[in-house]
Amino acid sequence: MAIEVRIPTILRTYTDGKKSVEGSGATLDELFSDLDSRHSGLRGRVVDNGELRRFVNVYLNDEDVRFLDGITTQLADGDSVTILPAVAGGAR
């Protein structure tokens, strides 16, 4: 099962600069474990204590997984996952 994962610029040091990588897994949790086996350290930047990190947004086919089943969201062959760190700040 191939799932495309889009990697934000800030995490590309874990993927040798690649903008997207392929992974596999029946759930997001399994997908992040699979990715970590080839891109060591990536899972730790997205997952903390078995849950998605608070300031990292993950989208499955353009849907926020927090409104699905979070880290246990089911995946299917051909799905697309996007990782986006939350950005805050701005001018006063």
Automatic annotation (TrEMBL):
InterPro entries: Beta-grasp_dom_sf (IPR012675), Mopterin_synth/thiamin_S_b (IPR016155), Sulfur_Carrier/Prot_Modifier (IPR052045), ThiS/MoaD-like (IPR003749)
Pfam families, alphabetized: ThiS
Protein name: MoaD/ThiS family protein
Species name: Streptantibioticus silvisoli
